[in-house]
Design goal:
single chain; 176 residues; mainly alpha; Hypothetical protein af1432; 0% strand; globular
Length: 176
């Protein structure tokens, strides 16, 4: 099933590239899944890690994920999908959307929180390395988010906190 999820994600993200590195987008979900595999996990969690951005970033619907992979994986992907990106909320600015998403993610399952921590870890240094201006805003958002993810895996939680602190240190050093 993990191989099927990886192949599904690879096809869904086929034409997409990472914003800063221009590498194929699929490398991000692969790294997230690899991080999830380093801690206590289930096959559903690994599959959801591969699929975590599919509904947000491609035409694939959550119903398709449920049909293809079943309730457990589908529910995890649904938890990981930013509901404010799934539905157009033009009356919310970024700050308001992100705050609402933090509130929503506070109620996610432990499994989804663990996957989200891996996602934060993989994204943080990439953003700091490549977009210093956006990184300052992003790090504030991630600090708020990681606080509500404390019920996820403890090792990934600590690693996410460390990545954010390291990213802030890098930004401070570059300002001086």
């Amino acid at each position: 099933m993990e191989e099927e999820a990886l192949e599904f994600a690879r096809k869904a993200h086929a034409e997409q590239f990472r914003k800063y590195s221009n590498e194929p987008y699929i490398v991000h979900p692969i790294r997230v899944a690899e991080l999830v595999k380093t801690v206590s996990h289930s096959h559903d969690m690994v599959c959801a890690a591969y699929l975590h951005d599919v509904v947000e970033d491609t035409p694939v619907s959550i119903d398709e994920i449920h049909a293809e992979f079943g309730q457990g994986i589908g529910d995890l992907v649904d938890e990981l999908t930013d509901e404010f990106l799934k539905i157009n909320y033009p009356h919310f600015n970024r700050s308001s959307r992100k705050q609402r998403e933090v509130e929503r993610q506070a109620g996610m399952s432990r499994e989804a929180k663990t996957i989200k921590l891996a996602d934060v870890i993989d994204n943080t240094l990439d953003i700091v390395k490549n977009d210093k201006g956006f990184a300052r805003k992003y790090l504030r958002e991630m600090e708020a988010l990681v606080k509500v993810l404390s019920e996820g895996d403890e090792l990934l939680y600590q690693k996410a906190l460390q990545e954010i602190e390291e990213a802030k240190r890098v930004l401070r050093e570059e300002e001086n």
